[in-house]
Write a structure and sequence with these properties.
single chain, alpha/beta, Rossmann fold, Arc Repressor Mutant, subunit A, 3 domains, 6-stranded mixed beta sheet, 12 strands, 14% strand
Length: 402
């Protein structure tokens, strides 16, 4: 059968977040493998159609994140196929509300729900921390009442309860006047009272970044006293956090592909079943680099080195801020870590240099200058001695392996 026109699709997402862009990538992958679609992006941030224009839109299919109740009702009035990315509780809540508020409307299609396996995310988080031998655990919720937050918390706490381990929980009420700057002090007070060291599982990366911000303001060393794990692996959020945020990566491409496949089947009159997309793995970064260190002086030295990335910092600068003598500080550090303070500075500096070579397109001269070297040749000599590779060879090898 010959198609006389491209189906017109509306995608209702906030394209400013990593998850939405990953879903869109998977969605378009399916479209490229099948017939072309005319896609309208209806987004709060990047849009060729204003969100309010949904009332005037008509087409063949809609893919959307669970939006606010008003927009959800508007979506259901459309005479087209609908695929919604949601959680198990979202479906029940939205349908119940819909029955109460819009009892007389008839819909040609029942929305198809594509769900994230939040139970598997909670399992992955608990397993990750248990393997690091933590015995104190906490969960920080998302302020809005969304099912994925509840499901992750429930799975996390239930799994740990089997090990007879309680979970300390923190929630920020979603009410007027309870903005982040108001709640920041509450979270700080809460974190300070928790037993240490403690593993904190955040509902998503935005919440994880907030936990790290509070720890820094309250001078709680991460990851020595508080270890933080988020969800989504939103790269700008994770990499710009301090220290960098560990996170559970989710297969957003799979979510988008399943959504497009379900929408296509629904538009062509085929049977559609609910689908689930999965978490992939924990991406470990600085916020969960576990160190079983009880010596507060050693923890302070490590924190100072990390804050300064190992650049332009001398041992005398560090020990000057400590309550003990330089000689005693050196002895305690070497006994605990196994090498000198200066060696730790060099290791941290080289680790950060390697990360810039791997993950950015900065020139070697820019990298060298940012760490206090005179030029790229000076850094290059040290790098070649350390790794038996030039910086160019190192960058090329990393790109070929990724």
């Amino acid at each position: 059968m010959v198609n006389l026109k491209c189906p017109e699709i509306a995608i209702f997402f906030d394209l400013s977040v990593e998850s939405a862009r990953g879903i869109l990538h998977g969605f378009m992958h399916y479209v490229r493998l099948n017939q072309p679609w005319n896609v309208n992006f209806i987004s709060k941030t990047v849009s060729d159609v204003a969100p309010s224009s949904l009332k005037n839109w008509s087409g063949d299919g809609i893919m959307a994140h669970i939006p606010d109740q008003e927009t959800y009702q508007e979506i259901l009035t459309k005479q087209c196929s609908i695929v919604l990315l949601a959680g198990e509780n979202d479906e029940q809540i939205l349908f119940n509300r819909n029955e109460n508020l819009m009892p007389n409307l008839q819909y040609p299609y029942s929305p198809v729900f594509i769900r994230c396996n939040n139970k598997a995310i909670g399992q992955m988080a608990s397993d990750f921390f248990l393997q690091k031998s933590y015995r104190n655990f906490a969960y920080v919720s998302y302020p809005k009442r969304v099912c994925w937050c509840f499901e992750r918390r429930q799975a996390f706490t239930e799994i740990l309860s089997k090990h007879k381990i309680p979970v300390h929980c923190f929630s920020m009420p979603d009410e007027a006047g309870n903005d982040w700057f108001t709640q920041r002090n509450r979270m700080s007070d809460w974190l300070l009272t928790l037993p240490k060291p403690i593993a904190v599982f955040a509902a998503n990366d935005f919440i994880g970044r907030q936990v790290l911000e509070v720890c820094q303001r309250a001078e709680i060393p991460v990851p020595y006293e508080v270890s933080v794990l988020g969800v989504d692996n939103d790269l700008p959020v994770c990499e710009m956090s301090y220290p960098s945020l560990s996170s559970i990566a989710i297969d957003w491409n799979q979510a988008g592909f399943l959504a497009a496949e379900s929408l296509h089947r629904q538009m062509t009159g085929k049977e559609v079943s609910r689908k689930t997309y999965e978490p992939i793995r924990v991406i470990s970064r600085g916020s969960t680099e576990f160190f079983n260190i009880s010596d507060n002086v050693v923890v302070r030295i490590l924190e100072l080195i990390r804050i300064n990335r190992g650049e332009n910092i001398r041992v005398t600068d560090i020990v000057r801020s400590l309550p003990i003598s330089a000689r005693r500080a050196q002895e305690r550090f070497k006994k605990t870590i196994g090498h000198s303070i200066m060696e730790e500075i060099k290791q941290v500096r080289m680790k950060n240099i390697c990360e810039l070579i791997q993950n950015t397109n900065l020139s070697f001269n820019e990298i060298a200058l940012s760490f206090g070297f005179e030029n790229a040749n000076h850094l290059g000599q040290i790098f070649k001695k350390e790794f038996n590779l030039t910086m160019g060879e190192y960058r090329k090898n990393f790109k070929n392996s990724s």
